[in-house]
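Customer ticket, subject: "Can you confirm the structure for HAD family phosphatase?"

Message body: Hello, I'm evaluating your service for our small team and ran a test protein. I'd like someone to confirm that this is what the system normally returns, since I don't have a reference to compare against.
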Amino acid sequence: MKINKIKNLLIDFGGVLINLDRPTCIRNFRDLGLTNIENLIDPYRQQGLFMLLEKGLVTASEFRDELRKQSNKPITDIQIDTAWNSFLVDIPTFKLDLLLKLREKYVVYLVSNVNIIHWEWSCQNVFQYKSLHVNDYFEKIFLSFEMHCAKPEVEMFQKVIERTAIIPQETLFIDDAEANCETAQSLGINTYLAKTKENWGHLFE
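Agent reply: Thanks for trying us out. I re-ran your input and got the following:
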């Protein structure tokens, strides 16, 4: 890949921008009586009920009600959301600054497997930087719960290409899941597999 031929950036959210804390999230759910969800919560792709929420196939209310049934405790919406949002930590400010800098030269898109509960928390808590809003960092935002599909499904990438009219060969996709990168590559998109907490800004130096 020659970076000087790249015009568009597709950037993942969890693990690439925002730091994650899966052990704390699982521990907090266990404290609510939910002891069987460890296999459902994944840094790359959720499973079961959590994937249904991630694809927008159940509402946040339906998600919470189902967890209440599984818990057999009168846990509140706030308790559930607090436990679920503990999966999210922060976006280092240097990455927010990097996004703003990249927008000066590239067309930057966010392409994320994310659910509505996490997204609302993130918009309120991690993008509020320099009096900016989440939309200030990206040309367009593609979220699995709004698109009703999720990476690494080819459908999600095809929808992004169709809705942006980007040329795959002029596009770089930055993600931390190998399966997602493989699907993008199959469509001709350049990819970079980011490591946990990596400062991938070196790609543009």
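A couple of notes from the result: The first helix runs from residue 22 to 31. The chain has a mean pLDDT of 95. Feel free to reply with more questions.
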